[in-house]
Design brief:
Blueprint: E1 18-21, E2 26-29, E3 35-39, E4 47-49, E5 58-63, E6 68-74, E7 81-87, E8 90-98, E9 106-118, E10 122-127, E11 137-141, E12 147-151, E13 156-160, E14 166-168, E15 171-176, E16 183-191, H1 202-216, H2 226-238, E17 269-270, H3 271-281, H4 288-304, E18 311-312, E19 323-324, E20 336-337, H5 348-362, H6 368-384, H7 401-414, H8 420-441, H9 463-467, H10 475-488, E21 489-490, E22 493-494, E23 510-511, H11 512-524, H12 528-539, E24 551-553, E25 558-560, H13 566-578
Antiparallel strand pairs: 1-2, 2-3, 3-4, 5-10, 6-7, 7-8, 8-9, 9-16, 10-15, 11-12, 12-13, 13-16, 14-15, 17-18, 19-20, 21-22, 23-24, 24-25
Helix pairs in contact: 2-13, 3-4, 3-5, 3-13, 4-5, 4-6, 5-6, 5-7, 7-8, 11-12, 11-13
Length: about 575
């Protein structure tokens, strides 16, 4: 039901939130040490903590002194977050992570409180509310001071490190004041199955988690920004589970524009986004994330073939229809769960899949079973390349230029790795689609236009040259890039397309994916200084923890949309790789 009560921790701007993740689920943490969002056991499960969208549930470690300022940082190459509070009397930190390697059935959230200097007492609050706040939890304490509980929905929980807590209005509460050099561990376990007989040792959990991250994230020394590339890779790794699926974002209902009804549920795996991430993960040496993307996308193609959906649940199931949760929502947003994408056809997904498979083949990571998926993607393109689709921006069905040119790029990319008897047929199909597209979608000025019926410029039309559908110096590529610069570029940021005659910012925020893509275009065309300038400009459009959303409000310098957005981190990662390379001839 709707809640009108004043929340303990009111919503903050998105730039102040951090994310911890283990691949199977993630938790969003606010600047006052409050877990504002976590779904369990998996990304698309009902939330246990949902105050981000006006729900309930609390797990907070927060300074008792109201006069404090917040900061924090990630351990390098991980999603291990360190909150830091400076009070008038001292400094205290809280290191937090979801235990790695992630277990699909078991959520383990660790918090390690450390006094840095002076005195800085903190308050610990715990009140899980599974089912988006619909289900309560009854607590009981064992003889060793460990609290356990169970919800009406069957979720079991255990919290160690709150042995002195009291239950006040259904919430566990404990205040602690550490001495010089003092530390305190909290371990929260959540599962729909029986918990292990004994709580885990915090030292063992932390050691395993640090080791898992160390083994998962490459050094990225060959990129132009190794630290940011490692963080981007860590975000993608933390959002990719054991099935190989990568969720598009951790959250739902965060507005792209206040009260504009553009509030979606992104806790699912988009084929296109997964392909973007896989190509980014294979831009340098081959990585586990490349293999994960190939596995998940090939499984979906082998299962559904020509009926491939644009998005799936992390287990490969159907994305549910949109429906409200009856929560207030994030300010300016809504509480919509599910996604309308489940009813769409997106042609470019097949082209992106072939580009992903070509990246794997270049590293000799494409196995025989994956070639069966290649055949499914090619058959789908052959049958449906002239069928109207929703396109990359998921709009009304149209013969979108970018969708068709994505297929051209994919066919050309995979052809060199195909058996000789098939390569010629792939090139021939690519030539047929390209010839038809250029005859119907070339603007009188010589650039690409969005579709036969829509002559506007679109930043998505940078992708065909980036992906090799046609050369970077082709007159259409040059004219398209110039039109994007002239019509969609503002102060180093790029918008998707023009909605109407007014200023670009009147309709939506700048699209960070497009900003990085223009940087790739400039690099490809030999404009090195401009490529780096665009990269640096868009690299700065993140919050304090270094996380990106889909859009960026240039005027207010604020993040807009669901959080964090995986494909923006993939775009940063790929651009960091490409800018370190010499421009291709």
């Amino acid at each position: 039901m709707k809640s009108d009560s004043t929340p303990l921790f009111p919503a903050q701007v998105l730039r102040e939130y951090s994310l911890i993740g283990d691949g199977e689920r993630g938790a969003v943490i606010g600047p006052r040490g409050d877990v504002v969002w976590m779904c369990a056991p998996q990304w698309d499960s009902p939330a246990v903590f949902s105050s981000l969208v006006g729900g309930s549930g609390v797990f907070a470690v927060t300074p008792l002194n109201p006069r404090h300022v917040w900061g924090g940082h990630y351990d390098d190459g991980t999603l291990i977050w360190n909150s830091r509070w400076v009070t008038t009397d001292g400094i205290v930190e809280c290191r937090e992570a979801l235990a790695m390697p992630g277990d699909p059935a078991m959520t383990v959230l660790m918090r390690h409180i450390r006094l840095i200097s002076g005195t800085a007492p903190v308050r610990i609050l715990l009140q899980p509310r599974p089912g988006f706040g619909r289900n309560g939890v009854d607590f009981f304490r064992s003889n060793d001071g460990v609290w356990s509980g169970a919800s009406d929905a069957g979720m079991r929980l255990r919290i160690s490190g709150m042995g002195q807590a009291k239950v006040i209005d259904g919430m566990l509460r404990q205040d602690i004041q550490l001495g010089p050099g003092g530390e305190h561990h909290l371990v929260l376990e959540l599962s729909s199955k029986l918990l292990p007989s004994r709580p885990p040792r915090p030292a063992d959990l932390w050691a395993a988690t640090v080791q898992a991250w160390s083994a998962s994230v490459p050094a990225m020394d060959e990129t132009v920004t190794p630290a940011d590339a490692r963080r981007a890779y860590a975000v993608l790794r933390g959002m990719t589970g054991s099935t190989g699926a990568m969720v598009a974002a951790a959250t739902l209902g965060l507005p792209e524009r206040a009260k504009a009804k553009r509030n979606y549920d992104y806790r699912y795996a988009w084929i296109r986004d997964q392909c973007f991430a896989g190509q980014a993960a294979g831009a340098g040496a081959p990585t586990d994330l490349l293999d994960s993307a190939v596995h998940f996308v090939s499984e979906r193609l082998l299962t559904d073939g020509i009926s491939l959906k644009p998005a799936y649940t992390v287990t490969g199931g159907k994305v549910p229809d949109e429906h409200p949760l009856d929560l207030p929502g994030y300010p300016g947003g809504t509480d919509i769960m599910g996604n309308r994408v489940n009813k769409q056809f997106q042609l470019d997904s097949f082209g992106e899949a072939l580009l992903l498979f070509a990246t794997a083949a270049r590293h000799d990571h494409l196995e025989a079973v994956h070639w069966l998926a290649v055949e499914q993607a090619v058959a789908a393109i052959e049958a449906k390349w002239d069928v109207p689709d929703a396109g990359i921006w998921e709009l009304g069905n149209e013969r979108w230029t970018q969708s068709r040119l994505s297929c051209v790029a994919g066919l050309k990319a995979i052809a060199p790795y195909a058996p000789a008897t098939h390569a010629a047929a792939l090139d021939q199909l690519a030539g047929l689609i390209l010839t038809h597209t250029q005859s119907t979608c070339t603007h009188p000025s010589g650039r690409w236009q969005r579709s036969p019926a829509d002559d506007r410029i679109d930043a998505a039309l940078l992708l065909p040259a980036i992906r090799g559908a046609l050369p970077a110096r082709d007159p259409r590529s040059l004219a398209t890039a110039e039109a994007v610069r002239k019509e969609l570029l503002d102060d180093g940021y790029v918008y998707r397309y023009r909605h109407g005659p007014g200023p670009l910012a009147d309709s939506e925020g700048a699209f960070l994916l497009c900003g990085f893509n223009l940087a790739l275009t400039e690099h490809q065309q030999g404009n090195t200084v401009e490529a780096v300038r665009l990269f640096e400009r868009n690299r700065s459009a993140c919050g304090s923890p270094g996380l990106f959303t889909e859009e960026y409000d240039i005027e207010q310098r604020q993040l807009r949309g669901n959080f964090p957005q995986a494909f923006v981190h993939a775009a940063l990662l790929e651009t960091a790789h490409r800018l370190a390379e010499a421009r291709a001839p």
